[in-house]
């Protein structure tokens, strides 16, 4: 008898299957598609990330045993969402997307994108000057009526800095990658209590994605960031999402080894300590936020 060896997936180490029990309807709530052959990167991009296409991602989705996924426009494209929208069209009803914008689309444009599967916009805030409060508030007001959210890639310090804004936005908020809580401070950082309060008041969601990013303890356990994830689940499990962050642009840019995506997924069992909680994070929560 011959056994088929699973294919090696681009930007992912290992070939093992998940040890956790993956429920029907499971969703990867954060990944990217890079296709510079069809869609050129913005002129200022210096990362030059190789193609990480829909076909490659489908291999990872199959290895996970997931049914659903959320495509997030990566910074290499700036506010050009053509690659994301093309991927969304190819992936169909099992996919949703979060796009990047520099000006608010018209209501008719928003409705077209909504019908395609877009459910939010994302701001990458690398410094205080990048946070345009008036524009963020304008977007929040317009998007609330569509049931969309605003996703923030933002440091924990800036979450605290803009506390009053986050507490008063009219739409739902999502914080990427544990709100970038620094591993050395973890839940002692004041951003944790702020995110916890927003989650418990049904205003915000937090992705326990990219366990490797900023981890001091490192692979394979990433115990510092996993402890943060566990605390977020304990604080408000109804508002936690999980995402792979494939193809791991931070690791490629910094020339680090690619993580074993399935091993990182299995660490969810250390953060959500029952099957009920795992099902909630992988199925129920993304279904509510993204409208599956």
From TrEMBL:
Protein name: Hydrolase
Top-level lineage group: Bacteria
Amidohydrolase-related domain ranges (all copies): 27-292
Gene Ontology MF annotations: hydrolase activity
Gene3D superfamilies hit by this protein: Metal-dependent hydrolases (3.20.20.140)
Swiss-Prot/TrEMBL keywords: Hydrolase
Source organism of this protein record: Vibrio comitans NBRC 102076
């Amino acid at each position: 008898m011959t056994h088929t060896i699973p294919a090696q997936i681009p930007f992912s180490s290992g070939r093992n299957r998940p040890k956790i029990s993956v429920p029907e309807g499971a969703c990867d709530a954060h990944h990217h598609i890079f296709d510079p052959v069809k869609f050129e990167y913005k002129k200022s991009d210096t990362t030059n990330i190789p193609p990480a296409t829909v076909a490659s991602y489908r291999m990872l989705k199959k290895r996970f045993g997931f049914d659903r996924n959320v495509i997030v426009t990566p910074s290499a494209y700036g506010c050009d969402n053509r690659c994301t929208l093309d991927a969304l069209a190819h992936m169909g009803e099992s996919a949703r997307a979060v796009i990047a914008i520099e000006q608010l689309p018209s209501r008719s444009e928003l409705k077209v994108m909504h019908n395609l599967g877009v459910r939010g916009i994302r701001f990458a805030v690398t410094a205080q000057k990048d946070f345009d409060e008036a524009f963020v508030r304008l977007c929040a007001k317009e998007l609330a009526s569509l049931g969309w959210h605003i996703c923030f890639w933002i440091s924990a310090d800036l979450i605290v800095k803009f506390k009053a804004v986050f507490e008063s936005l009219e739409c739902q908020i999502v914080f990427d990658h544990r709100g970038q809580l620094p591993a050395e401070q973890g839940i002692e950082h004041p951003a944790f209590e702020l995110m916890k309060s927003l989650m418990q008041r049904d205003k915000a969601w937090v992705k326990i994605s990219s366990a490797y990013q900023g981890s001091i303890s490192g692979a394979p356990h990433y115990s510092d960031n996993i402890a943060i994830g566990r605390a977020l689940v304990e604080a408000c499990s109804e508002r936690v999402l999980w995402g792979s962050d494939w193809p791991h642009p931070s690791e490629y840019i910094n020339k680090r080894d690619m993580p074993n995506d399935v091993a990182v997924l299995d660490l969810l069992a250390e953060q959500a300590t029952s099957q009920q909680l795992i099902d909630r994070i992988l199925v129920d929560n993304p279904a509510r936020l993204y409208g599956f």
